[in-house]
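branched-chain-amino-acid transaminase
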Amino acid sequence: MSETHNRAFMYGESVFTTVRMFDGVLQDWEYHFDRLRKGTEFLYGPFTDADEWVGIFKNMLETRMLMENGDRVLRITVYREQQGRGLIRSGLISVTDLKLHLSSTHFDKVRTDGVFKLRTCPAIMRPRWWPSFLKAGNYLETILAQKIYLKDIDDDLLFLAPDDTILESSVANIFVVRRGKLYTPPAGPNVLEGVMRRKVLDVSKEFFEETEEVASNIDQVLKADLIFGTNSVRGLFLVDHIDGNELKYTQEMLAKFEMLKVRVLR
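Tokens:
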């Protein structure tokens, strides 16, 4: 297809999800599909297929990934061809009119090892109507922020709201442990409903006295007992530096983190 007819290429108009495959089995596929379904309907719906569109869409996705096997990282992107000129789309379409792009790479266990060093930077705040389930394919703002703020020693950015509360990193949701309680920023326009985030919240009561989806300011974070990030490729990973400040954790807290990690990923 010519790039001039691809709205993902022209305008960054796409939704996607990145799924890990282990020994030929998609990990957490139902979670991924649920979020991708919501994002696709929000961006491209309603469809002429009525209620049948969900089953048709799921079959399209699973058929596209059918030939994949082994240990892989699969990024599947949903986009639409350009119809007519300009930004504005017109008319309802069938879900079968949507296009799928599959990027498949070998999963290297090195990607799950090690810890993260984060650099704080101000977030470009999205409007209130932006849904937390929309994993959009336009990352230019993030790439530019990395260009401006990241230093050679850093692994990723930690976005801050105007009131200096943490939001998320450019690749992960963030969790903070303080005094036996687990905190994570509430999902919203600037915090994605991550698949691994959801899994941590589902089992958190087994490990922590209480779990709250509330904002934490950067001063609270720097004094936390533990900070970790989550995403579907790396799973759960520790954060050991923020803005060059080393974060030190007790052996007891590290042991609890390892148990949580095993529980979530099993």
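The longest strand covers residues 14-22.
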